[in-house]
Amino acid sequence: MKITRQTKNLINRGLDTHIRIGVTGLSRAGKTAFITSLVNQLISSATNDNLPLLRVQQQQRLLGARRVPQKNLLTPRFNLDASIKSLSSTPPQWPQPTRDVSEIRLAIKYKPNSRTRKLLSRTATLYLDIVDYPGEWLLDLPMLEMDFATWSANQLQHLEQIPLPEVKKWLQSVVDLKLNQDKGDGLINQISNDYTQLLLLLKSHGYHHIQPGRFVLPGELAHAPVLSFFPYVAEAKLIKGSALELLDKRYREYQNQVIKPFYKRYFSEFDRQIVLVDVLSSLNQGPHAFNDMQWAISDIMKSFSYGNNSILRRLFAPRTDKLLFAATKADHVTPDQHSNLALLLRHLVQPIWQYVSFENVEMECLPVASISATEAGYVESKGKAQPAISGTLDNGEKITLYPGEVPATLPNAHFWKNSGFEFSSFQPKSCGEGEALPHIAMDKAIEFLIGDKLR
Ligand code: GDP
């Protein structure tokens, strides 16, 4: 039977598939580096043997990938060119981190290996949309189930436990307010501004559990009045026309005009998601940062729990069926520590995974280095070969070191007392045009995320 060109085109289009992936994580977790590497690895896969554990490349069925214009015209473009430019400058620089949502689209051409698909066409295309968004925005989900008074009481209780003088000072500044008797928004705006500055300061001290998330990463909402409120517990019932009523109103606006549209427009559209976790930096910053990161991760995970009764299912019907947790910057430790890093990440997410209902969501934990900045090797110490990593520090100094052991379970008091962990900030390595960026386990991550769509 002769197949006309038109029919052939139709069949080809029928074989083409589309997948939308969300890439998230708290700020500086490594989202920009991950997306830059993901795109670079796929684009350079036609001429490099850079993804040995990606089955479609292993089986020599990957024909190549290229950037194509994104379909969603309202989302800002992921600035890949700027990232590549930074990495190829002299000396190489890390790309500018994520501050807002952004998107990039790839067309991946491959030879199908399933018998039916092979019969229909010799090649197929997978369109991959990659959307980058701050993990801080996911920390807002619990706010949808709290009114202003409940949220305020929770937040103030949380702040009272933080032993920083700036927190005490801010709490002091609200304790005597009588917002029920006050009118106008002058005072509210000023205290909201102080509250935002306080949240930014907390972040710089390694406290990641920030609410509302948009206050620290406002994206296009910077300076909008909807981001001007703060936790406040009133002494009496809300009086109409008071400053307190205004606070309450802004909180509801934040729920309805900021949190809900994000889940509707982006979150519920993702087929797969990857959550990047910078476990190593938190280990380096000490117990307060690690515990806070653990708490933030557990709240982030609530966004992936879509049991029948969950607020997510009721409001947004999300469809993510695969979820990857990746411990980033694995090149900061020696390869013998990678399995511990994966186990530690698993310990961080597993208890919550078991506790909440993740129906039909497949989960995996992996250590990755999106852009590996070090070389792993050995040094001679006391007549024995010891594992070590070497790289160039931000100040240009070349060093070789053993950064320390990663605990395979959640660190206890003994770990914090005895185990120093040396986390240095390395320059990325220089990389020529058309070359694949050096990485650790990006192929495993890509296989998990889209491998089944390339069969
Ligand atoms: P984002 O805020 O999540 O977009 O974070 P970035 O991707 O900008 O990463 C923040 C910083 O982490 C970078 O500037 C690098 O210093 C570091 N980083 C990210 N990924 C890697 C990696 O794979 N290896 C190393 N050594 N450092 C990384």
Provide a descriptive summary of the structure in words.
- With 455 residues, the chain is α/β, with parallel strands linked by helices.
- The chain folds into three domains: 2-137 and 265-372 and 433-453, Rossmann fold, CATH 3.40.50; 144-262, no CATH class; 374-418, no CATH class.
- Helices cover 37% and strands 16% of the residues.
- The chain has helices at residues 5-15, 31-43, 55-58, 80-87, 115-120, 148-160, 165-175, 186-204, 243-265, 279-285, 287-301, 311-315, 338-355, 413-418, 442-450; strands at 17-25, 62-68, 102-110, 124-132, 272-277, 322-327, 362-367, 374-381, 384-392, 398-401.
- The strands form two sheets. Strands 2-3-4-1-5-6-7 form a seven-stranded mixed sheet, sandwiched between helices. The chain has a three-stranded antiparallel sheet with strand order 8-9-10, with no helix packed on it.
- α7 (165-175) packs antiparallel against α8 and α10 (279-285) packs antiparallel against α11.
- The chain binds guanosine-5'-diphosphate.
- Residues 25, 27-33, 94-95, 97-98, 328-329, 331-332, 369-371, 373, 425-426 line the site of guanosine-5'-diphosphate.
Task: Give the SSE map.
Blueprint: H1 5-15, E1 17-25, H2 31-43, H3 55-58, E2 62-68, H4 80-87, E3 102-110, H5 115-120, E4 124-132, H6 148-160, H7 165-175, H8 186-204, H9 243-265, E5 272-277, H10 279-285, H11 287-301, H12 311-315, E6 322-327, H13 338-355, E7 362-367, E8 374-381, E9 384-392, E10 398-401, H14 413-418, H15 442-450
Parallel strand pairs: 1-4, 1-5, 5-6, 6-7
Antiparallel strand pairs: 2-3, 3-4, 8-9, 9-10
Helix pairs in contact: 7-8, 10-11, 11-13
Bound molecules: guanosine-5'-diphosphate.
